[in-house]
Amino acid sequence: MAARIVLGVSGGIAAYKVASLLRLYREAGHEVDVIPTPNSLEFVGRATWEALSGRQVTESVFQEIDSVRHVRLGQEADLVVVAPATADILARAATGQSNDLLTATLLTAHCPVVFAPAMHTEMWLHPATQANVATLRSRGVTVLDPADGRLTGKDSGPGRLPEPAELFEKTSAILAASLNQRATATHNQSGAASSSSGIDGAESSPDAARPLEGRIVTISAGGTREPLDPVRFLGNRSSGRQGVAIAQAARDAGADVRFVAAHMDIPTPDGVILTTASTALELRDAVFEAARGADILIMNAAVADFRPSEYADTKIKKKDDVADPVIHLVRNPDILAEVVAERNANDFSTLPPLIVGFAAETGDAETSVVEHGAAKLARKGCEMLVVNQVGSSLVFGQDTNSVTILSADGTQPVEFSGTKTSVAQVLIETIAARVDSLDK
Known about the structure:
Blueprint: E1 4-9, H1 15-27, E2 31-36, H2 46-53, H3 69-76, E3 79-85, H4 87-94, H5 101-108, E4 113-117, H6 121-125, H7 127-138, E5 142-143, E6 147-150, E7 156-160, H8 164-193, H9 201-204, E8 216-221, E9 226-227, E10 233-234, H10 241-252, E11 256-261, E12 273-276, H11 280-291, E13 296-299, E14 306-308, E15 329-331, H12 335-344, E16 354-361, H13 369-380, E17 384-389, E18 400-407, E19 414-419, H14 420-439
Helix pairs in contact: 1-2, 1-8, 3-5, 4-7, 8-14, 10-14
């Protein structure tokens, strides 16, 4: 669906990447008004933005005064995206300044607003920047986490602008959710007009961009490691990417996120309450603790099914005159099933009413991946199960995923393929709809 997008560009070197983002928006059929800050024009000139957008570009509130453009742009936008978002623009937005066309537009926007930060690591991690980010998020603004990678010069770390394709996909999902929510609200309003209740459905609906506002979501992620000796362990290929994406999506949807992290190849997300665990036994204790009082539990962690029955205090040596060691394994607890069982056994349980499991499956000659998942959903007793096929080059460590979301209540399965970021957004939207149905 075509929409009106305001694309703000602040003064960072990453501004050159935003030209590709603009092209993606235009190819999708959207109308895009580019608002550069004066400093950003030192990196990418006005002519580039006008050529790619097909529209006049200005950064001043003193142009097109007769149309009150500094108010009209924000009022008429369906989405505002600021990329790159420098520390300066985050600070000015957080404090409500209005000293150029972009900040004035931010103050008049009624639509979802998304910031894509890009700056040096020290600037991103500075307490002032983090406080500004927290302030914006508390107001319902989406502030994406920057990527971790090469920065200007020889520096590397968190602060890199995500790639244009990733920004396009994530912001498009936010836009689609907002447009769908608006359509639903319009429908509810028309229905309410003929209802004697006098209740406006739009007012009772959650914000489109924050459907989990006020909810507590506990998420486990990463892979457990079961030690064999001080050097070796049994583990799995989980990188934690999908769990991090889910935590970010839940956080951006307004939830208070408790994040239980096993071993991960990437940094934990900002804006969450973090608990770390290494082994399956440690993860079980951490999950039970973090899940109490939560509304939703999402068990994304890849938990080892088995662990060595004995731990060697010293490194196991390879010796020619000694037979090869035999490793005996014992079964690890089924954390998902235990949480469900304890909750169901207690009418006054503080464990979440909505529990979502993950099933990393491989099919065989007799049974498909989804059939294995459906059987697991029945065994575990949770409300939802996310099934994905795994393998040496599938899911683990990759940027993409293909999932089928199964529901115990018989709701039609949701199938989706895409980046792990987009999969996380679809999952959170599906969960938010399920939570709403439980409340009714």
